[in-house]
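TODO from last week: model Alpha/beta hydrolase fold-3 domain-containing protein.
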Amino acid sequence: MPTVAVKLYSVFFKFLLKQRLQNRIQDSLQESDPFGVTSRPGESVAAANPSFSDGVATKDIHIDTFTSLSVRIFLPESALAEPELARGSKPHHLKSITDSTNKLAQAGPGLIRAEKASLASRRAGATPREEPRRNSLGPTGEGLSSASGGGGYLGYSPAPGGRRRKLPVIVQFHGGGWVSGSSDSVANDLFCRRIAKLCDAIVVAVSYRLAPENQYPAAFEDGFKVLNWLAKQANLAECSRSMEVRKLDAHKAIVDSFGAAVVEPWLAAHANPSRCILLGVSCGANIADYVARKAVEAGKLLDPVKVVAQVLMYPFFIGSVPTHSEIKLAKSYFYDKAMCMLAWKLFLNEEKFNLDHPEANPLAPGRGPPLKLMPPTLTVVAELDWMRDRAIAYSEQLRKVNVDAPVLEYKDAVHEFATLDVLIKTPEAQACAEDIAIWVKKYTSLRGHEFSY
């Protein structure tokens, strides 16, 4: 059973959640805001950290002009290792990001000109030499996305030329019952940093629009829009590299004018979109499953992005026919069934609310595409979560059509036990992240499926 502290906090959490939902019900009477909101004022937020002081650098990017859709990118320090040394110890020539910043500040534009000259000599066939990693220096930093803060951004910027280590991409959707949570909350920031390190992957956390300001299907559309954005990023980066290799000055000027301003350098330098994992938490798992289905339907239209697997952490599934856990654990810890129904009504709208809505019930008839086409799906469930049984039933249906769909069930655990702010630093939360990493590497390893349970 959960500790006394967890039980007490659960009571306090439910009280606050009920107040928030009631406030949202009042707000739902107002007109919808097309721009929307992606976070609530009362939630604690972790600022973006552009350096690798804790092993992961982050930056926030607004990716849609017409909505508030944004993402936070988590880049693990392992991306800075040389490709052939990636699996070994940290290379001796890699220094801290702070040291690189100080050296560049002292050297000024002269060092940048020297780097350009070195790149030109390598193209001419000269023997390459070791170059120090560097930071961007405002307007002089090359490859710096204008969306990342312009001249004021002092985070890591990839040096031009040379071989770079490519990492898989994990697209993460936070929880919060459709009405709260954000990609930059303290708990979500810590969780994504943990996943980036353990999975050795770039994590793209999505700040989708929240209800009731933006009801269904806004959050789902935002999720798939991010996948399309990743495909666009990959294609723009490839176009830029192609023009550079061909040395067509006129065409390169066009790319610089219309492409470089929107190319995200971290993704261009280090992301391998052909190894893309979807990871959803609670209601975010519903979004991940929707995006996976849309990716199957889109097929090659998303190239070079390929969804190779998905992770559903205690998905927010419901249905008209109650399961055993929904009856027995209806008043469970933190998120009980009554309050979750209120959250669903705020998201789907009272008039359209249906327990067997295709985005609410994964086993609803007529839900496409065929389950046999779905990517491998890892499902994480908690023993004391009333939503547990339906998530397990969905996993069983996937396995019946030969989809790799294991279930990890954690004893004495509650809903969001690995991602909730008060529980995220517990040993169980750490163990869950490590278990997820083992399974994810099964599908992201370039050497094959050597990781298995």
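Done. Residues 223 and 291 are 6 Å apart (CA to CA).
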